[in-house]
Amino acid sequence: MKRLASKIGFALSVFVLVSPAVLVFLWMLSLSFKNELDNTAFPPVFIPNPPTLANYLDVFEKNNFALYLWNSILVTGGAVLIGLGVGVPAGYGIARGKATKFAILILVARMTPALSYLIPLFLLFQMTGLVGSITALVITHLVITIPIIVWIMIGYFENVPMELEDAARIDGATTWQAFRHVALPLARPGIVVGGILAFIFSWNNFIFSVVLGGKNSRTLPSAVYNSLTFEQISWGPLAAAALLVTLPVLLLTVLAQREIVAGLSAGGLKDG
Amino acid sequence: MTNTTAMPADLATPKVLPARHSADFTPRYWLFSLPAVLVILGVIVFPWLFTLYMSGHDWKIGGGPEFVGLQNFSELFRDTRFLESMGHTAYFTVLAVVLPIVFGTAAALVFHREFPFRGLLRTIFVMPMMATPVAVALVWTMMFHPQLGVLNYLLSLVGVGPQPWVYAPHTVIPTLILVEVWHWTPLVMLIVLGGLAGLPKEPYESALIDGANSWHMFRHITLPLVWPFIMVAIVIRTIDALKAFDTIFVITQGGPGTASETLNIFLYLQAFQFYKIGYASAVVVIFFVIIIMLSLLLLYARQKSKWNAE
Known about the structure:
The complex is a heterodimer. By secondary structure, chain A is mainly alpha-helical. Chain A folds into two domains: 22-52, no CATH class; 56-265, MetI-like fold, CATH 1.10.3720.10. Helices cover 78% and strands 0% of the residues of chain A. The radius of gyration of chain A is 23 Å and the shape is globular. Chain B has a single domain, classed as MetI-like fold, CATH 1.10.3720.10. Chain B has helices at residues 30-54, 71-76, 80-112, 118-130, 133-143, 150-157, 169-197, 202-209, 214-243, 246-251, 263-272, 277-309, and strands at 57-58, 66-67. In chain B, strands 1-2 form a two-stranded antiparallel sheet. In chain B, helix 3 (80-112) packs antiparallel against helix 9, helix 3 crosses helix 11 and helix 7 crosses helix 9. The interface between A and B is large, with 105 and 101 residues.
């Protein structure tokens, strides 16, 4: 009897822990599938009856969603690819060359608020006429992607035994070849983890696009925010847009939860 | 989860190896870091130095810089709006650290046990921290609506009157903390869970033989052993709470009035609303100093607790 009671108590505590997350996302889903009448009803309507896709159609037809989606893909894709190209070798160089000071610089960069980079970069882009361009956003998003990729790669390369590379070099491999053909394949899980986290943080970033994005170069988060401020508030389309913005990230979380958990514990401080 | 066990405790102190191999290889690894060094000089170090330079100037966008020495700083400390924003930040940060630490640790203890659907439920629990902040902030905004919001309706079901949520100066910061707790408790849970995974079994077995109850085991065995991980979580939460921007900006933009204007929001408004570049740069410098000092303090506390434990 006592065991049963403690089991029920435990199940209850799991329920209490998980329900805030479930409720907010379900409410988001509910808002996005209801018509405007139900969305402004009081008491609130919980289950869309009948569910409507009008809000989603509205998002694509009236709000240029496809353009902003493409912008987000370009900015995040560019920043993650450049970040990997530059950051993976750097992680190797720091791990093997024991460049402690450089590692600390990377850590400080992760702790500094994103806004602090924004004023000088804004002036710089203004001078070079790049404000409002995708290029400016890709460059700025490197502030997010490079530190996290480097930081995670340091950890992974440190766990690759040096002896294997030493053996390759004794067989006549250059340092580059030892990196390319021995260390890099072994650190592949780290590349996946670093790439996923860099993608998520870059995709979620809001402030860079608010300041540097032009009318046609905005990424999704700031585009959705702008539709809140400058148009009549209508909850259905807004909830649909919000859900679409965060959907890729949520799917990635479900599909790659092992990698994400590993990466976050290994030093993925959040961005911003 | 293979990497979670050992790594969290190392994450606040860079884990660049204590010399495992002699350092005479070092030069040949420079080239690997060179591209990253160049990019980081451009997008990170240059902004820092330029900000320091600008903080000594009176500079509005459109005009040129005029050197004013430390005037921006002395002006800031007489600016009541700035001082109030520091107060808001302190209030917000303390609660946005303490509550997620308490709830996250409790959640980690729950998720450390085996139960059906644990993996799935953990993924759901972690979702808030991965979701796009702007998206969840928009949904919270709709839920806080005083007349049509679902939260006031749910409260009315249990006999509680409607709350003003983010629409009154005295409730706005607690409400934003509620969102922050919802958002970031999962991160604390993950870090502490990593710590729990590495705990030895022996102390619990002997404690059971000695007849200790579960609270005693938590208080005298679990808590001291995972404390280094909790300290890491405190460091990360403190830095993140100080930097909180997206959700506050989307939900309140610092309002009503300036009631929820934190340091970061104040900084944004000075720079990109009023275009006071020099003034805003001085705020960045102060912000930077606060973050570095707090992290050093917390790292020191962590080291000390580690030494005491050993």
